[in-house]
Design a protein that fits this description.
Helices cover 39% and strands 18% of the residues. It is of the alpha/beta class.
Length: 375
C-alpha cells in the first residue's frame, strides 16, 4: 500500500511524558522521529496534571480522563475517547500495548476504523509473568482467549524482538501477521568513540524502585565483587516501599562485607540521568522481567558496557555480558574493571550496534517500510 507523504498518524497510548516509563519513552521518541520525517502526529493519551505543550509543531495531544487498569473496569471519558478515534481522519492509527485502556476500549470497534491499523505490542506481560492478583490472572486468560480474533483485524502487529513474549502465543494460535520493530535511542546519546575505564570509575543501575526490577540482586552482587568503585542507583518511581528495603539491605551488607559507597537517587532529570550514564564505567541490570530494556540500549549508546540478567532480548545485544546469578555478576564486574581490552571491545560493539540499527531515526524508517508507506 502506498500513500502520499506526509502521513497523518494517530498514536493511542496510556503512557506519555511527563510519565517516566519505558513505554512513555518509546512512544515519545518514535513520535518525534516520525514527526522529523514530516509526518503529522497526534497522541491520544491519559489526562494528567503537569503535562506541558509539546514543543514540536507536528505533534498534537488529545487527553482523556480515563481511570482503571487491566483487571479492573475502565471508566471516565471512555465514550469520548472511542468517538475521537472513530472520527479521526488519520492515515495510520497505532495502538500502543495490550492490556491498556487505549487499546482494549477500541478492540470491539476495529472494523469501523478505516485507517491502517497497527498494534505496537510491548510484551504480553501476563503470559510471561503471573500477577499476584487472581482476578487479573482470570481476566488475562479470558482476554487472551479473545485476542486472536482481534489481532487478525489489525493490518500490522509489531513486536520488539525475536525473543518477544508474544511469540509462543502467536505460534499456538498460528498467527503470522507480525513484524519486528525494535526500540532505539536518540542520536545525540551515541558516543563517537569507545570508553576507557578511568581512574575513578563508578557503577550505575537505572530502573524504577520496584521488586520486579530487582535492585537487591545488583546490590548483593556489587558487595560480593569487592570492587572499591562507587555504585549509584537512579529510579524515577518508588513502589511497594522497595527503596526503603534496599537501604535496609545496604546496612546489612555493610555489616557483612564492610562499608561501601552506594547512593540511591530519586527524581533525577532526564538530562542528569544521561550525564550520569555517559560518565559511568559499567551499567548493571538485575531485572526479572523485560521485553526490550531501553536502558541497556542507552548504556550501549554511551559506550558503557553492561552486565545484565538474561531477560527479554538482552542476550542478543553485543555491548556487554549476560549473567544468571549474583556470583556471576560479581565476577563480571571484577573482570571488566580489570581487563581494559575486553572493556573497550564491549564499549565499541555497543556503540556500533546502536549506530547501525537501534536509534530512533533508523527505527522510524523501518516502521514506514514495514507498513509499505512512502516517506
Amino acid at each position: 500500500m502506498e500513500r502520499i507523504s506526509p502521513l497523518k498518524i494517530l498514536i493511542t497510548t496510556e503512557q506519555y511524558p511527563p510519565i517516566l516509563s519505558g513505554v512513555a519513552t518509546v512512544v515519545s521518541e518514535l513520535a518525534n522521529a516520525l514527526s522529523s520525517q514530516g509526518h503529522s502526529i497526534t497522541i491520544a493519551t491519559k489526562k494528567i496534571s503537569g503535562r506541558e505543550p509539546v514543543a514540536i509543531s507536528n505533534i498534537g495531544i488529545a487527553e482523556f480522563d480515563i481511570q482503571g487498569s487491566f483487571g479492573s473496569f475502565y471508566r471516565g471519558e471512555t465514550k469520548a475517547y472511542i468517538d475521537f478515534v472513530l472520527s479521526s481522519d488519520a492515515d495510520v492509527i497505532i495502538n500502543e500495548c495490550t492490556q491498556t485502556w487505549n487499546t482494549d476500549l477500541l478492540l470491539p470497534y476495529l472494523d469501523q476504523i478505516h485507517a491502517v491499523k497497527v498494534l505496537h505490542s510491548h510484551g504480553f506481560s501476563l503470559l510471561a509473568f503471573k500477577s499476584r492478583n487472581p482476578w487479573a490472572n482470570f481476566k488475562a486468560k479470558f482476554y487472551y482467549g479473545l485476542l486472536t480474533k482481534y489481532l487478525k483485524k489489525y493490518d500490522h502487529v509489531l513486536i520488539l524482538s525475536n525473543s518477544a513474549s508474544e511469540l509462543p502465543f502467536f505460534t499456538r494460535q498460528q498467527f503470522k501477521n507480525y513484524d519486528i520493530l525494535p526500540n532505539g535511542v536518540p542520536e545525540h546519546l551515541i558516543a563517537t568513540s569507545p570508553k576507557m575505564i578511568g581512574d575513578k570509575p563508578y557503577l550505575l543501575s537505572i530502573s524504577n524502585y520496584y521488586p520486579m526490577k530487582n535492585q537487591e540482586f545488583v546490590l548483593k552482587a556489587y558487595y560480593q565483587s569487592g570492587t572499591s568503585a562507587k555504585l549509584i542507583f537512579i529510579g524515577a518511581a518508588q513502589l511497594h516501599g522497595y527503596l526503603a528495603q534496599l537501604k535496609i539491605l545496604k546496612q546489612s551488607l555493610d555489616k557483612q562485607y564492610g562499608w561501601r559507597d552506594v547512593e540511591f537517587l530519586y527524581e533525577v532529570s532526564r538530562k542528569e540521568t544521561e550525564d550520569y550514564l555517559k560518565a559511568s564505567a559499567l551499567f548493571l541490570h538485575g531485572s526479572k522481567l523485560e521485553a526490550f530494556p531501553i536502558v541497556i540500549l542507552e548504556a550501549m549508546a554511551t559506550g558503557t558496557p553492561f552486565v545484565s540478567t538474561d531477560v527479554g532480548n538482552v542476550k542478543s545485544l553485543k555491548g556487554g555480558k549476560i549473567i544468571h546469578n549474583e556470583s556471576e555478576m560479581a565476577q563480571a564486574i571484577t573482570n571488566l574493571l580489570k581487563d581494559q581490552d575486553q572493556y573497550v571491545r564491549y564499549s565499541q560493539l555497543g556503540i556500533n550496534e546502536v549506530s547501525m540499527q537501534y536509534n530512533w531515526k533508523a527505527v522510524a524508517h523501518k516502521f514506514v517500510s514495514i507498513l509499505g508507506l512512502t516517506s
